[in-house]
User: What shape does this take?
Amino acid sequence: MQEFMKDRYGVDDLTIGLGVLSMLLALIGSLSKLSVLTWIALAVVIIALLRAFSKNIAARKRENAVYLDLVAKVPAVGSFLAPLSQGKGAGASSRSTSSAAPQAGVEFNRAKRTAQRMWRERNDNLFFRCKSCGSILSVPRGKGRIRVTCPKCGTKVEKQS
Assistant: This one.
């Protein structure tokens, strides 16, 4: 699958928006028994898939930029969706390149290893997140109330082990 998607655009904010729109149209069409809406929803899904599999990356980026500009102008929706497209990897900037797939796999493997380590050491250590930077910290169980310093950001926290 990675070889197939190598030179293709992939999923961005507009594609996700089209997917949500198609689900809403399909739901409304099936509840109101309007088959026209269901067919329109199918057409929207096909357009979203064609965008995702497109090799014309420059055109897809322009379309996505126009979509993000339009969404940002909508009063209620724009302020809600703007942080999502600029935040932690949700958006065209992190998804549209072909190098994003291996990076996502590396991040997944790192999270998997961390979860396995936490499961193995769950009886000996207490795990919690730093409130400042979000990194996972561990302290030995049964030591009472201890002061923990985050090695990443230096925040000090008192924790009951």
About this structure: Residues 87-99 have pLDDT under 50 and may be disordered.
